[in-house]
Amino acid sequence: MKPKSLRADVLAGLTTSFALVPECIAFALVAHLNPLMGLYGAFIICTLTALFGGRPGMVSGAAGSMAVVIVALVVQHGVQYLLATVLLGGLIMVAFGLLRLGKLVRMVPHPVMLGFVNGLAIIIALAQLEHFRNGEAWLGGTPLYLMLGLVALTMAIVYLLPRLTRAVPPALAAILGVGLAVWLLGLPTRTLGDMAHIAGGLPVPAVPDVPWNLETLAIVAPYAVLMALVGLLETLLTLNLTDEITESRGYPDRECAALGAANLVSGLFGGMGGCAMIGQTMINLSSGGRGRLSGVVAGMMVLLFVLFLSPLIERIPLAALVGVMFVVAQQTFAWASLRVLDKVPLNDALVIVAVTIVTVFTDLATAVLCGIVIAALNFAWQQARELYADTHREADGSKLYRLHGTLFFASTTPFLNQFDPAGDPPQVTLDCRHLSFVDYSAIAALKTLRERYAKVGKHLRVLHLSERCRQLLKRAGVQHE
Asked: Where are the transmembrane segments (predicted)?
């Protein structure tokens, strides 16, 4: 590794670690867990995925999307059942990677990706508003103005420093600079230590204290499947985004297997489950982190904060971290998607808006599923509309239908409507040279068409079937001659 790249990765990892700590603490509190569980999960998952994953530069940790999934489980059954869920979820992720199912991310259309990015950017921004509360009440008066001023100062440093120098990541300079100013001036503003005390020891391995029987499996399995699904989706979509930003190619199957293994280790050492974190990934990439070392440094720094550096890290003003995350939200949001909403097809615009809204108000898995369903239905509708027929009379008085398009479940009705069994001559030919048979609905449609002609005493001959179509018909026992 070149010295310049080494330095960039170390500084980027250090910057990312500052952003990891408050997020992981907040997500642990959301899930009604000890903040140290979030920090242990961040250390283990970030470090292991950086070392063995398929996408250098991407940062994983105890993510909020997964914290939301397991709140009900923790409240009803306790922490030990959560740890068992993390283990089972990790096994599912490993299986997903080993079965090479990471390629399924190719099924996610680009409008869904834009909606995903926009939705998460909004979530990142909205999550920072919680830091403007003191208990249940919103800040007001001097504390509010001081908080807003420090946030604005942080954002100004992040935006303006690159115009002067790129020797130091602007987010790192902003966090350290604002933190030093608050300390020297004795400004009364909330710090990371006000969220939680993060001092602790090394995580200790232990098997979750639950009965290992079918009853326990019935409790944890639904949460484990949902946790794995959400984690894999967010990881694979973040991997795609990282590929675009770095103009390089990651390996989704390897990333899925590494993420699953990291979750297994995290569960055994008392940590939360986790997946890729788009906000921290954006901080890492914008700070120059491109190699595995950046993720390793970020993970190891989280552990050092817990073991030795908690008195220092707890002095960091929340305003500095909020300012950095606001910049991340602004840079993550795909602003270009707003400019093209009136230029792209209406259905694509609908997908972008729908996925964005559903991501904000529900969860990522539901949003992506909705987007894929909308896109798939639209694709089926468009393909069905493109099926058409050329017809003409032959010299012998028979009629030729030459079909163009794709015959599948959505186009069977338009296909059958092309023909006129009652008005056609006794001999009819169907030329399938430009027609593709896709599914069993297509086979059933051809069978129905043959029966309609046979019912009126006429003969339908089918020509120029592709070899694949012949095999489909043969397997279904439908004659085509």
From this structure: 36-53, 81-99, 111-129, 144-161, 168-186, 217-237, 258-279, 291-309, 316-338, 350-377
Give the H or E element holding residue 301.
helix 292-307
If DSSP codes are grouped into helix, strand and coil, which group holds residue 403? strand
Separation of alpha carbons 150 and 96, rounded Å:
44
Structure tokens at 481: 């001659």
Structure tokens at 160: 């303006």
* Closest residue by Cα to residue 115 from 373, 423, 322: 373
Residue 192 to residues 244, 253, 337: CA-CA distances in angstroms? 33, 36, 35
The model's pLDDT over 85-131, given as tens digits with 9 standing for 90+, comes to: 999 999 999 999 999 988 888 788 889 889 988 998 998 898 888 88
Distance, first Cα to last Cα, the chain:
66
Query: What is the value of pTM for the model shown?
Result: 0.82
Which pair of structure tokens corresponds to residue 368? 């992506």
Class of residue 213 by CB neighbours under 10 A (exposed 0-12, middle 13-18, buried 19+): exposed
Candidates 306, 222, 243; CA nearest to 40 is 306
Strand partners for 275? 61
Q: How many angstroms separate the CA atoms of 290 and 235, rounded? A: 17
